[in-house]
Specification:
The chain is an alpha/beta fold and 470 residues long. 49% of the residues lie in helices and 10% in strands. It has helices at residues 30-39, 88-107, 121-131, 150-160, 174-185, 216-219, 231-242, 247-257, 264-279, 285-302, 306-310, 322-328, 333-336, 340-349, 351-354, 378-390, 399-404, 407-418, 421-426, 429-441, 444-469, and strands spanning 2-3, 9-11, 20-22, 53-54, 59-64, 69-75, 112-115, 136-143, 164-169, 209-211, 315-316. The strands form three sheets. Strands 9-8-7-10-11 form a five-stranded parallel sheet.
């Protein structure tokens, strides 16, 4: 994260890699914090403080660095939908040239650290890096007693002849690193999504620079809505999409605890509606929702945990590049739906990688994934279910299961939630106890987000409020 310091002019990226703060920390913005509790990220320019804001994406600024006031703001890019109809093959060729150019420029002569998964974004990067003959060290990680995500990375690395390391996310790693994680992210993201923190001390030996595939899955897919979806329906879709399980209930409890006026749900919808209306892409609901996500979700949620990588090595993100954002605005929606462009690119440059299983469509690959429906996928679904039923160990699907469950984890979690005097001055102990009890006794999956956000707020109160109160 960077603070303005002796800078009079500043330009933000179309998708900023890190937030740039302006203004001083004075008064807690409790309405903004309620949105953070509900969604896991701050919306638009919001921060923990009313007087401090984050600079908008795609803008040029003049700032008085003494008063921390914005003197001028000018947008140099506005998301739009200006499709240029051309053959699909031409679009794939354009993507290939652009993607490889960006990667080559970003990497220069450095050795790449490449996280690999069973998805398409990192596989697309592996194809480009191999095609460009850039030296790579790769790795993947999986949950202890979970699905073996390292299997896919290992196969990709083998075909590309990349050195490869398989890593396992261990139980309870969070408690040895949670304070460091809070420092790195400034508590602008909850702590159980950032699995990469488990391996933070291993990255430095792997290479010179990270090549990360974040946001490719949003840019190169549709938003799963009809293009003529009404504006009000888009608002409802987004409001429901950004709120996590249990998040709305937690935010409403804090809204009442802090005695804020009106209704949190109405406030959230009004904010989403205003931000979406300002985008104004009436030709395509998919393009408009993608723009909303790229403006408000990517920089305020996805980008925050990039700081973990960045704390050890420089990072590069080909899908964040301004040119990639501009390219997307010219591609007809019919070619973005279903990840078609990335799939075609992989088949074009390295067909053997297209034959490997696509994790989201397992056991099918990029040639056969359209058969991932009944009756063709029934044998695998039956096999997978039986395997889980007959296993003697709990099947882990989510990071919080390894960090919150079990006696030792519970001790650590309870200590952070209930033995922090600064936290109890921020919200009532009754609210914390309520959601911890719901997590423990009613529905762990539904209330895991609530507990994780309360943990984040507890760490914030320790690290930030002590500083501002002194």
């Amino acid at each position: 994260m960077q603070e303005i310091d002796n800078i009079s002019k500043f330009k933000t990226g179309i998708i900023p890699i890190e937030p740039t703060f302006v203004g001083y920390k004075q008064t807690l913005d409790k309405r903004a914090i309620c949105i953070f509790m509900a969604t896991g990220f701050f919306l638009d320019q919001d921060t923990y403080y009313k007087e401090q804001k984050v600079l908008k994406p795609g803008c040029k600024y003049e700032i008085n660095t003494t008063t921390q006031k914005i003197l001028s703001e000018e947008a140099y890019f506005k998301w739009h939908y200006s499709p240029v109809d051309r053959p699909f093959k031409q679009i794939v060729d354009e993507f290939a040239e652009l993607f490889e150019t960006i990667i080559k420029e970003q990497i220069s002569d450095n050795k790449v650290i490449l996280p690999l998964s069973g998805g398409l974004d990192s596989r697309t990067q592996a194809v480009a890096l191999k095609y460009l003959n850039i030296p790579v060290n790769s790795y993947s990680y999986k949950f202890q007693n979970g699905h073996d995500e390292t299997y896919y990375g290992k196969q990709i690395a083998k075909i590309c002849d990349f050195p490869f390391q398989a890593m396992t996310v261990p139980k309870g790693y969070l408690w040895n690193s949670v304070d460091e994680l809070a420092n790195i992210t400034s508590c602008y993201s909850e702590f159980t999504h950032s699995r990469q923190m488990a391996f933070i001390n291993q990255y430095e030996a792997l290479g010179d620079v990270f090549s990360l595939g974040h946001w490719g899955d949003v840019l190169f897919d549709d938003m799963n809505v009809e293009d003529d979806l009404s504006f009000e329906s888009q608002v409802s879709f987004l409001a429901n999409k950004i709120v996590k399980k249990g998040g709305l209930e937690l935010a409403e409890s804090l809204w009442q605890d802090w005695e804020l006026k009106g209704s949190f749900k109405d406030y959230l919808r009004k904010r989403v509606s205003g931000l979406l209306a300002a985008i104004n892409i009436p030709q395509s609901a998919n393009a408009q929702i993608r723009a909303f996500k790229s403006l408000y979700w990517a920089p305020r949620w996805t980008s925050i945990n990039l700081s973990i990588f960045q704390s050890k090595k420089p990072i590069t993100l080909p899908y964040y590049d301004n040119r990639m954002c501009e390219f997307i605005c010219t591609v007809p929606e019919k070619y973005l739906a279903g990840r078609q462009i990335q799939i075609a690119y992989i088949k074009k440059r390295r067909p053997t990688l297209a034959k490997l299983t696509w994790q989201a469509q397992r056991p099918f690959n990029l040639y056969s994934y359209t058969y991932n429906r009944s009756p063709w996928n029934l044998p695998y679904r039956i096999y997978n279910k039986l395997r889980h039923i007959t296993s003697n160990e709990k099947y882990i699907q989510r990071n919080w299961e390894l960090q919150f469950l079990g006696s030792e984890n519970e001790k650590q979690l309870e200590n952070r939630l209930f033995n922090n005097p600064m936290f109890t001055t921020m919200i009532s102990a009754e609210v914390t106890q309520k959601y911890y009890d719901l997590f423990k006794n009613k529905d762990q999956v539904f209330y895991s987000h609530s507990v994780s956000m309360l943990l984040t707020l507890s760490l914030f109160s320790t690290q930030e409020l002590k500083t501002t109160n002194n």
